[in-house]
Amino acid sequence: MANEICLIAPYAELAAVARQVAGSVPRGFDVRTANLEDAPALLPEIEAAGYRVLVSRGRTAELLRKHTSLPVIGIRIDSFDVLRVLADLIGKPCRIAIVGHGGILRDLARMAETLGLEAYSILFEQTDALEYEQLQSVVRARLARDPVDLMIGDTIPQSRFAPLCPEFRLISSGPESVVKALENAAALLDAVDLERVNRDHLSTVLDLFEKAVFSLDQEGRVVHANRAATLAFRMSRAEMMGRPVEAVDPALAIAHDTLARGVWEVGPVVETRFGRMVCYLYPIVSDGVGRGMVFALERVERIYTVEQKIRHQERERNRFVAQYRLEDYITRDAEMRRRLAQVRRYAATDATLLVTGESGTGKELLAQGIHRASRRAEGPFVAVNCGAFPPTLLESELFGYVEGAFTGASRKGKKGVFELAHTGTLFLDEVGELEKSLQTRLLRVIQERELMRLGSEQPIPVDIRVIAASNKNLEEMVAAGTFREDLFYRLNVLKFETVPLRQRPDDIVPSALFALRRHAQAHASVAADLAPDLRRALAAYPWPGNFRQLSNVMERIAILADRPVVTLAEARPALADLDGPRPRACGCGCDVLDGGMEDIRARVVARVLAAEGGSRSRAARRLGVDRGTLARWLKEPGAAE
Q1: What is the predicted pLDDT for the residue at 302?
Q2: Predicted confidence band at 581 (pLDDT cuts at 50, 70, 90)?
Q3: Which of 440, 475, 497 is the endpoint of a domain?
């Protein structure tokens, strides 16, 4: 249908005016003529024709609103219409009777009084056709008492009361009033169309959600349901609309509690007929009054799936991120502090660095700290342990491969760690474990800063900094012919050697406290400090496994601790494997580690005292204890000065 607006004119002149102004309104419209009594009979035909907005005047508009669900726009009688009917009467000796519905003619009566016209009003409110006969008697009686020269009214007085007076004037609606009403009708259609577009857009968006989403009114009835809701509960939208939400599934009755409280609620799990679902309830509150709610549900199984994806993505995102800074390397040792100051200068360059030292001395921590202190800090930090893979697998880990490079290779190919570290830092741990064939390939990549994946002939340039680490003596390996000399020199541009924990006794207790508190937090332990006797025992032990071994012992202590300050007696179960014969760490055939902890302490005290020339003050300071404690140790059986 071309037009969606229908103007129902209660008199022929109004229909003519409407047709005259057709070109002045933004939307087309059709015109039907029907008086007050006939207009309702037209409604079935009009509604069937598909009109969306009706326009009429006065009492006819009021009657139409009662009998149709379509919006009805009223044509108002404005001041121009009033002046048009009264203008030629100003100053003339005539009496006027204003007769009709009060809602339409009340302004006319006031205007006549303002203009000085002699007039009175017979106004009646809303009524039906059966009472018009009675009204006719009222009007006739009033006119008999107060004769007039002119009657002014609307269409009903014109048809029923006009013969009672010498002249009757119909107060009609002019072009301005008609145009304004039609413009209002067009604006209403525009607003409805926009709302429909927005509603359809929102419905489309909601249909894309994997959650089941319901919109509920204030009574908890379904106003809208998205596609996921129809699939989840196996009902059509038509079956859901207007029904209480618990009719969809009894478990959804919890929505009424949230509607009553008006508080957002996320997380309750309900057992529906179609499985366990997590509920999200969002009340809609306007001006402090609940207007309904949005009720969303999600299957528990899907939440588990999403959580796994998030964990995987987080793991991938954090896989190539350096966690530690140089400030995290705990030391009070003067020599180690000097070396760390040197490392900070190394971090400012892109030169290849070789970190050597015993296992557990923090070589990777240093590498991460160097990366974070460098200009490459925003790039990836990729670490690979060269001793953790067999040679054939390590080659593909280092350099990657293309599709079909070998049996079992991924069809998509794979990037190696050199590519993954592009614009960042590559940390090659235990580089001394590389076989000679891989040493040759590694040399070329480090030298040329380009690589070729396995099975490919296309070189790939890489922008990386290389930090290598080894707990082996690479120079001895070069001399023995097990490590390429040219690779050693390519790696050994800058060099840093870590200091084992036994050579920096001042770092043992601070490192132990740091590890204890970290493990206590992880295990919800009360442990927070170490008693003096336990501190002394830890400081006296040589820690061949360095910080890694110390951290393991502190984790045991944290788990076993019953109070915040742990004593030596309480920690003995955690220290049990420190007793007994130990590998000789001094490298000179000494027996300092033979026996239990107390025997070890006695020998350590004797050696420190000898090294300090018999000075108890210097020996106590070096051992981290006071002179009284040192004197007590020297008096114990087995101690010797």
Answers
A1: 83
A2: very low
A3: 497
233 and 256 belong to one structural domain: yes
Distances (CA, A) of 191 to 68, 187, 199, 527: 20, 6, 12, 68
Cβ contacts of residue 466 below 8 Å, gap of 6+? 352, 353, 425, 426, 428, 446, 491
* Domains contained in the chain, number: 5
DSSP of 63-131, one letter per residue? HHHHH-SS-EEEE---HHHHHHHHGGGTTS--EEEEEEEHHHHHHHHHHHHHTT-EEEEEEE-S--GGG
The answer on 83 and 36 residing in a single domain is no
Tokens at residue 317, please?
């995102």
619, 609 Cβ separation under 8 angstroms: yes
Kindly state the tokens that stand for 619. 């020996």
For 222, the domain range is 209-302
Distance CA 162, CA 152 (A): 9
pLDDT tens by residue, 42-66: 889 888 888 989 998 877 888 888 8
Find, among 286, 298, 276, the residue nearest to 214 by Cα: 298
Whole-angstrom Cα distance, residue 529 to residue 517? 8
pLDDT of residue 555: 93
Pairing of strands 275-286, 265-272: antiparallel
DSSP for 530-574 reads E-HHHHHHHHHS--TTHHHHHHHHHHHHHHH-SSSEE-HHHHHHH
Give per-residue pLDDT as tens, 368-417: 999 999 999 989 999 988 888 887 788 888 888 877 555 555 556 788 88
One-letter identity of residue 430: E
Integer Cα distance of 74 and 65 in angstroms? 10
- Whether the per-residue pLDDT at 615 is higher than 80: the answer is no
Rg of the chain taking only CA atoms, in angstroms: 48
In this prediction the pTM is 0.49
Q: Is residue 313 part of a domain?
A: no
**Shared-domain flag, residues 281 and 256:** yes
173 contacts 77 by C-beta, under 8 angstroms: yes
Least confident of 12-16, 35-39, 184-188, 343-347: 35-39
- Residue 624 DSSP label: T
With beta carbons less than 8 A apart as the criterion, state whether 256 and 220 touch.
yes
543: amino acid identity, one letter: W
- Angstrom distance (rounded) from CA 141 to CA 153: 17
- 312 in a domain, yes or no? no
Mean model confidence pLDDT for the chain? 82
Whether residue 315 is contained in a domain is answered as no
- Structure tokens given for 205: 């968006």
